[in-house]
Amino acid sequence: MNKNLLQIHAKSFYWASFFLSKKIFYKCSVLYNFCRTLDDIVDSEKQLELKKKEFLNFKNDFLNKNLNNQIIKEMWDLINSQNISKIVILDLFDGVETDLKKSLIINSKKDLLVYSYRVAGTVGLMMSKILHVKNDEALLGAIDLGIAMQLTNIARDVVEDKKRNREYISHNFSSIKQTIIEAESFYNISFKAIKSIPVKSRFSVIVARRVYRKIGHYIIKKENIENYNKSGKIFVPIYGKIIESFLSIIDFFKLLFPQNKKYNNEKHELLGKEINLNERI
Asked: Is residue 94 included in any domain, yes or no?
């Protein structure tokens, strides 16, 4: 079940997972199943009140360690074995709960980044624990890579989100393009942090970063809102994934050279107004 869910719903990540050991892949699948369960609750076609009830039941089952639920049992096993902080999980719940409204409009850059941290930066942080990353700067980089990927998602899914009465960014090409540019800054700054990931898992993260980043490049190529609206779900085709995987070899060797600059992302000042990142790592 784990493998199929990842393969069906997260093709870019599934592609990158080929470069992980079976043991690490299983742990990533456990995390993905947990996150996917939350997403499926809030994105279902059910009435809002029913979705709120299902969300609360799942959250209570998690907090009360209802081990009869296999997804919760596996997640708690993962939390305990990988030393994942409970506050990070609660951040994820807070982010997902943001979507449980009749309509959602995000009006500020700070709120967009906080939301992106909660639903995806947290996942990046948990992934880094699975990959045995211990360096604090690298953990910050994992958060930033998660945010970059979420901004890519938001830029790609404007039409789909509008149907769900969610407006993370305005439905115009200028806002979409600006979100991709913002994502680029997070992709760029997170790159050197990958150096702290153990070598045996490092290449998979490099590939995932490149492939997901490429989605943004495909979005920019649409050039205007008319083409974007007609394009449907934008993704990287197989040949594109192969090219990005080969280019990832260059990235891998780049990271073998010393990285002397201290990790510093000025955007963390915005996040810091609501989220204490040092507490999370």
From this structure: yes
**pLDDT over threshold 50, residue 231:** yes
CB-CB contact of 41 with 51 (8 Å): yes
Tokens of 277: 């990142």
pLDDT in the model for residue 11: 59
CA 192 to chain centre: 18
Q: Is the pLDDT of residue 47 over 80?
A: yes
Per-residue pLDDT at 2: 43
Instruction: Write down the residue that tokens 């958060």 correspond to.
Output: 143
- Nearest in space to 159 (alpha carbons), one of 215, 229, 221, 259: 229
Q: Which two tokens stand for residue 86?
A: 């409970």
Alpha-carbon distance 25 to 201, whole Å? 10
Could you tell me the CATH number of the domain that includes residue 162?
1.10.600.10
Neighbours of 56 (CB within 10 A): 14
Q: Would residue 272 count as lying in a domain?
A: yes
What ranges make up the beta strands (E) of 99-245? 104-105, 166-167
Digit-coded pLDDT (tens) for 70-102:
999 999 999 999 999 999 999 999 999 999 999
CB 263 within 8 A of CB 141: yes
- 118: three-class secondary structure by DSSP: helix
Q: What's the token pair of residue 41?
A: 């609750």
Query: Shortest CA distance to 231 belongs to which of 148, 176, 159?
Result: 159
> Is 275 domain-assigned?
yes
User: Treating both helix axes as pointing N-terminal to C-terminal, what angle do 122-130 and 70-82 enclose, rounded to 10 degrees?
Assistant: 70
